[in-house]
Amino acid sequence: MYGLIEIYNKLSLRVRLTLSYIVLIVVSMTVLGIGYYIKSSQVILQNASGTYLGLVKTSNKSLDAKFATVEQSAINMHLDEELFELFNTTDLQVRQLDYETDRKITRILQKYFPSSEDFFSVNLATKDYMFGGNPNFWIPKKDFSSSDIYQTGLKAIDKTIWIPTYNLLEKYFASSAAASRKDQNVFTAARFINLSRVTNNLLKGMDKDAERPILLVNFQESMISRAFKESLVIKDSYYYVFTKDMEVISTSDQSGDKLLDQEWTSSLLDAESGTRYVQINGEKMVVCFDQMATTGWISAVFIPYDNLLKTVPNMFSYTLYSTVLILILSIFLASLFSSRITMPLKKLLWGIKQIGEGNFNARIETHGTSEVNLIIHKFNHMNDKIQTLIKENYETSLKEIEAELKALNFQFNPHFLYNTLNIINYLAIENKQTVISNMLVDLSEMLEYTAKKSGEVTLGEDVSYLKSYDYIMKQRFEDKFQIQYDIDPALYGYTVPKFFLQPFIENAIIHGLEDCEEGGSIRVSGHIAGNLRVFTIQDNGKGMEESVLSRILAISDTETTGNSKSIGIENVNKRVKLIYGEPYGVTIESQLLAGTKVTIILPMP
Fold first, then answer.
1. String of b and e for 232-268 (b: at least 16 CB within 10 Å)?
2. Are 275 and 288 in contact (CB under 8 A)?
3. How far out from the chain centre does Cα 27 lie?
4. How far is CA 205 from CA 14, 84, 158, in A?
5. Distance between CA atoms of 523 and 213, rounded to whole angstroms?
6. How far apart are CA 117 and CA 220, in angstroms?
7. Of 481, 536, 485, 546, which Cα lies nearest the Cα of 510?
C-alpha cells in the first residue's frame, strides 16, 4: 500500500487528476446505478399503485353520481302534486289501497326513477301498504311497517339513509341463505317524503294527521361489481365496499376471509383516500381505497404485491447498460478535463511568482467561467484592487474631514433656527399676537424633534409632534377640519418609526380635504390586536377611484418615485418593512366621495 502511495505522489498533476476522476466516477456510478435501480422500481411501483387508486376513485365517482340522483329525485318528489293529492288524506287505507292507485303511483315513480339495471325496485311505503313495482314479489305489499327498513325510513327526515346490503328472502321470509341467489341481494336508500304543493305562490303542506310515505330505492348489489370490474385487472385482485362500521356492502373475495376484522383496517377509516401496504394471511398486499361522498362507504381494491411487481418494466438491464456507457464516456471526459484544468493552474503559478517579486501590474489572460478561470479573474481583480486601495487611502482621509465639517454645520443650523424663532416669539408676545406665538412654539418643538436622531422613538414623542403639526395646519386652513386621537394609552411607551403617521395626515389634509370648506374630519386611532399594533388614519374627504388607488399603490412598491402624493407612503412602508420585516407595513382603502382609510401594522415588541 505504501509503495502505491509513493508511486501515486510521483505522478504528474494531470495523471493524478485523471486517476482520481476515474476512481471517483466508478464508485459514484456504481452506487448511483444500484440506487437508481431500487428507487426507480419503487417509483414505478408507486405510480402503478396510483394508477389503480385512480381506477378506484373513478369507480367511486361513477357510483356517487348514481347515488346522488336519489337525493335529488327525493327532493323533487316533495313538490309532486299528484302524490300530494293521493297521500294528503287522513283515511289513506279506505281511499287509496287498491290496484289502480298502485299502478298510478308506480308510473309516477318511474318518472323520477326510470328503469335501469341498477335498480331492483323503487317503492313508496306506508304502514299498511307498499306502493310501486316489486319484481318477483319478494318485497311484501302489506304489513311492511313492522320491518326495520320501514323504521329506518321514518328517521330519514333531513337526508337519505343508506342501508347496507341484505338478502330479500332472508329479510322478509326468513329463507335459508344457501337457497338465495345473487340477484336477491340489495342495498337500500330510504327517505322520508313530506309532500307539499304550491298554491298561489304559497307552499302548502300535508294535513297534520295525513300519513307521510317512505321512499325506498333498492339497488342491485351487482351494480357495484360492474363498477369495479375495470379495477381488477391484476391477477388475484379483489374489491371490498364496506361501511365505517365494517359492514360489507359488496365484495368479489371468494376466500371468505374476514379481512375487515384485522387491525390495519382502522387506518383506512382515518383517511378519505390513499394506498396502504399490508400483510394478509402472510401475503403482502397493496390496498387502494377511497371514500364515497354520498354514502360515506369505503371502497378498497386488494392487489397482490408480487403480481403488481410483475407489471413493472425490467429496470436491471437498462440500469446496467446505462451505467457502463456512462463510465466509458466519463473516463474519456476525465482525461480531457484534467488537461484543461492543469493549463490555467500553470499560468496562475506564474502570476503568483510575479506578485512575490512586487510586480502588481502582472495580468493573466483567461477565458470562460470555470472555477480555475474564476480564480485567475479574481487574481487580476486583486492586483487592481491593491493599486486602487493605495490611491484611495489618501482620498479617504479627506472625506473623513469633510464629514466632520458637515456634522458641525448640521449642529449649527438647528441652533441658529431655534434662536431666531425665539426672537420672533418674544416679538409676537410683546405685540400680543398669541396665535403667532403658539404657532412659533409648536414649530420650534417640531424643528427640535426633527433634528433628533432618526430611527425609532416612543409613540408619545411622535404624537406630541403630530399635535404641534395639527395646531399649525388648523391655523393655516382656518379650522376647516378637526383631528381626533383615539389611541390606547398602553401604546405610548412602545417605540415606533419616526414620522410614521405624519405623511398620511398631511395627505388627508392637502389632498383628501382640499375641496372641503368645513366639517372635515380626520381620526387617528391605535389599538393592540393580539401580537400586533394597529394604527389607522381615516378621513371623510373626497377619496379616490380604484384605478387611482391602484396606481398609487403600484408606485409605492417601486424603488424610486417622483410623485409627491405617494412619497410618504413609500417612505413609511419601506421603513416599517426594513425595521420589522415583510409581513408588516401600510395598506390603503378608499372609495370616491367616501373618504380614505390608511392602516399601519406593526408587531408588538
1. bebeebbbbbbbeeeeebbbbeeeeeebbeeeebeeb
2. yes
3. 43
4. 97, 9, 16
5. 64
6. 8
7. 481
Decide if pLDDT at 315 tops 60.
no
Rounded to an integer, what distance in angstroms lies between the CA atom of residue 435 and that of residue 190?
85
Identify the CA nearest to 215 among candidates 64, 66, 73.
Answer: 73
Dist. CA 300–CA 286, nearest whole Å = 10
Beta bridge partners of 242: 248, 298
Angle, CA 555 vertex, CA 551 and CA 557 arms, to 5°: 120
Average pLDDT of every residue of the chain: 78
Residue ranges of alpha helices (H) inside 139-192 are 148-155, 168-173
Distance CA 564, CA 503 (A): 10
- β-bridge partners, 231: none
**Which amino acid is residue 174, in one-letter code?**
A
- The three grid cell numbers given for residue 571, joined into one nine-digit string: 417612505
Q: Which runs of consecutive H residues, i.e. helices, occur in 357-458?
A: 371-430, 434-451
How far out from the chain centre does Cα 480 lie?
A: 49
Angle between helices 371-430 and 315-356 (to 10 degrees): 70
Q: How far is CA 76 from each of CA 104, 121, 155, 295, rounded to the nearest angstrom?
A: 18, 19, 19, 20
- Which residue is associated with the grid cell 472555477? 371
Q: What CA–CA distance (Å, rounded) separates 299 from 290?
A: 5
pLDDT tens digit sequence for 277-291: 888 888 888 888 999
For the entire predicted model, the pTM comes to: 0.48
Q: What is the pLDDT of residues 517-531, one digit of tens each?
A: 888 899 999 999 999
